[in-house]
Design a protein that fits this description.
With 216 residues, this protein is mostly helical. Strands 1-2 form a two-stranded antiparallel ribbon. Strand 1 and strand 2 form a beta hairpin. Helix 2 crosses helix 3, helix 4 packs parallel to helix 6 and helix 5 packs antiparallel against helix 6.
Length: 216
């Protein structure tokens, strides 16, 4: 679908500023993203035996899907030009913008964490994510998501656009508010902070679990 859309809207190759997409197609694209998440959730629900295993299968599948999304775009369209090429990452509740490297790093961490949990579960260890670990993980995720949303929000709220934020109930074309927008500086400090918090949560989880298993 993304290859088709980029061939139609960006025959010369995908780049910013973005080409406005009519409301019907924009809504279809949002539902395509929703359908992808539903598909990944159902894979996890079918494959997992308990909540933690289902969660692990979900983040594993999500990470693999996200990385190979870019792998196949590179193979088919020879895009992105580099890991720092900006991209529209997600559309819900409004566009997320960031360099390709950022979601790839997040996906790599998701895969590693999922494999760690699945390995421990397969070995029969009583694995559980404690509240403190969950706090690190959730805080890190929220900060990273905010780093993806921040540039778009600043552009639309600061008066650089004649149009407000696009939503699923908008009657205008999607990206019309971004027709003069070219990403410049992604706030890597926010992203790194989020990644560090996630890694702390994973390390604390691993050390606690490892200490428990050694006692056993």
């Amino acid at each position: 679908m993304v290859v088709y859309l980029r061939k139609i809207y960006y025959p010369g190759g995908f780049d910013f500023p973005l080409v406005p997409m009519e409301p019907a197609l924009a809504l279809t694209e949002v539902f395509r993203e929703v359908a992808t998440i539903i598909m990944l959730v159902w894979i996890a629900l079918i494959a997992g035996r308990n909540t933690l295993q289902k969660f692990s299968f979900f983040i594993f599948c999500f990470g693999v899907w996200d990385i190979f999304y870019y792998v196949f775009l590179k193979i088919i369209l020879d895009w992105p030009e580099s890991f720092l090429t900006p991209d529209i990452l997600f559309l819900i509740p409004f566009p997320w913008v960031g360099p390709v490297l950022a979601p790839c790093l997040v996906s790599a961490i998701m895969i590693i964490f999922a494999l760690l949990i699945l390995y421990l579960l397969e070995k029969g260890y009583p694995v559980k994510i404690k509240n403190r670990e969950a706090l690190f993980l959730i805080s890190g995720c929220l900060i990273i998501i905010f780093s993806f949303m921040l540039d778009y929000m600043q552009h639309t709220i600061s008066g650089n656009s004649e149009h407000g934020m696009w939503t699923m109930v908008s009657h205008e074309s999607m990206f019309i508010e971004l027709r003069n927008y070219v990403p410049t500086d992604y706030i890597w400090t926010l992203f790194i902070l989020g990644q560090v918090l996630i890694l702390i949560g994973i390390v604390v989880f691993w050390k606690r679990t490892k200490k428990y298993t050694i006692k056993l």
